[in-house]
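User: Before I run my own analysis I want an independent prediction to cross-check against. Here's the chain; please return only the structure tokens and, at the end, one sentence I can use as a sanity check.
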Amino acid sequence: MPHHHKEKFEEIISLIPTLAHGLSLSIGSPDPIDKKFVKAIKKFLDRYGIKYYSEHLSFSALSSNQTYELLPLPMTAKMVNHVSDKIKRVEDILQRNLILENATYYHVLDSELSEAEFINRVMEQSGAQLLLDVNNVFVNSKNHHYDAKKFLDDLNLSKTAYIHMAGHYKDEDLDLIIDSHGMPVKDKVWKLLSYAPK
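Assistant: Structure tokens:
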């Protein structure tokens, strides 16, 4: 971290409770856990007294090549086992509960479970908690043609650590809604957020 950013960061973090959120853990990749990376995360979290660290239920790296894109996982029992084992290894190093966000995906890989079933099984088997991104629920429901409220009904929300909101836009050429984090949160997503605690 450049020194001038570090000073400002440390000033801010001394005033405001802070959560850490990552893009590069790649919990679903076939690669083994990058222990050096996870230890560096633990050092960072410990240094700044950050209790909560979240990542994405997806993968972003293969053969140590990092894309920083959130790529979809096959929603299968085998992947539940794979991800759950890796979560436990990460938690052993971090000495913290890992929180995983339901990610957007634009292509459905061969799957035997619904998205809600897959997330529920990972949370149950691994002991991880859920970062519920309500915008991602909305985006996926539109792109993959399912009912967002039923998805929330089917999700075990007792595993939720906290809720995240973001913006999206419609790509007319691809006929997809894209999770961008660069647009205002839409009214329909705010309405979905109001439904989630119920």
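Sanity check: The chain has one domain: 17-165.
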